[in-house]
Write a structure and sequence with these properties.
119 residues; mainly beta; four-stranded antiparallel β-sheet; 57% strand
């Protein structure tokens, strides 16, 4: 099993910045992907950003809506993933869920952290 603990959400004005963190523990394989999904009110959960482990190639991927504003990074030694969110917009409001995928097959999510961007 995998446990994910998120931190860093909150309320910010449009144009501001927030940094989310997520620490993973448990059975984590060397080939894994960590990232963030979000769910806005009344909308389906969507991928925001993800990053593979070094063993998995260290690749990053972003939703088109956050490219050039958000940056995902990870500390493999600490099994921690970060999401630096800049130039935040009201449409970025939602619950952000940390996600870990082991070997492309087993998915785990954290409890979620609320991000609210006021206009």
């Amino acid at each position: 099993q995998v446990q994910l603990v998120e931190s860093g959400g909150g309320l910010v004005q449009a144009g501001g910045s927030l940094r989310l963190s997520c620490a993973a523990s448990g059975i984590i394989y060397s080939i894994n992907t960590m990232g963030w999904d979000r769910q806005a009110p009344g909308k389906q959960r969507e991928l925001v950003a993800a990053i593979t482990s070094d063993t998995g190639g260290g690749r990053t991927m972003y939703a088109d809506s956050v490219k050039d504003r958000f940056t995902i990074s990870r500390d493999n030694a600490k099994n921690t993933v970060y999401l630096q969110m800049n130039s935040l917009k009201p449409e970025d409001t939602g619950v952000y869920y940390c996600k870990l995928t082991n070997r492309g097959a087993d998915h785990y999510w954290g409890q979620g952290t609320q991000v609210t961007v006021s206009s």
